[in-house]
């Protein structure tokens, strides 16, 4: 009875996201409310002091994960907000992209840019920077929404081939099931599926678009902070690989350096202006993450993820991996992958590569299925849960094609 009630709360949270346009109630508020209620229910329903202690321990672990994500998001989004407000992103884009470009070509170039960027840095940063491209060009709402969907899919696809790009890829690698050379094979299906989606989206796109005129003047401090941002991304990967230093610690260090540079270069008044950029962070996005992760933590606490792992182990690995990827569009792929690894399934190399691709890319099938999607939904006004659904057939086709190619390559190199 308790589990049924808690599952009902999770369903209500999903419905509140779907019907946000009808109810006009911010999805961040509803998911946060229902996430908190679910944990309060677990405490109230605990039959003994020992059970209460166990629930409390699980909540603390869940909050630690959330706090880590919050701080990481806050750091990356503050950097991007500053550079975007200063026009640095627009200036960089103007160097990489022409002032006038065919819409179809722009889609392919943005897709490849997002794919490559997400392979070398985290999905959050890659999404924020890629979405910054959309503000550079004068796009109508339909094209902007379509390109946002393309960015979500490209960012999620780009991270699967390198341990620096996706947490689930790192988890499967550290568990000893694949090596670096094996993972590099995933570059082929990831790139192929992203280009295919860009081509599909470009069929109904025509004409040319023009970049917005960049009028901001570049100041030395802006260039320095941009270099700090790039250095922080590189150091995040290097320090994590060499000494397993958590990415959030490196990014907070980079953020503190940014503020120290502001203090050194600017007057007190100008420094306050720099600090104001932190208030541009979308706290709705952070609250939405908080609510979603509280609900996922609750599902983990009541054993739903373990049950899914048991069902997974009883089916054909090729089919199970494919369905698991689709499931990651509803459940966070990190605890889902952790549950599957705990079940210790017997998989071939093709099976492990298939699982890596599926849990990394499958979250793109729904806008709430990945960090990239949640951020895009909060940044692009035209992108909602319902409007995203019209692109699901194309996303499913590209996901399926990439997965099939992954299995083929996995069997070929085995």
Feature tags:
mainly alpha, two-stranded antiparallel sheet, 414 residues
Describe the 3D structure.
With 414 residues, the protein is mainly α. It is 76% helix and 1% strand. Strands 1-2 form a two-stranded antiparallel ribbon. Helix 6 runs antiparallel to helix 7 and helix 8 packs antiparallel against helix 11. The relative contact order is 0.14. The mean pLDDT is 83.
The chain-level mean pLDDT equals 83
The number of helical segments is: 22
Give the structural class: mainly alpha
Strand order of the largest sheet: 1-2
Structure summarized in a few sentences:
76% of the residues lie in helices and 1% in strands. The chain is mainly alpha-helical.
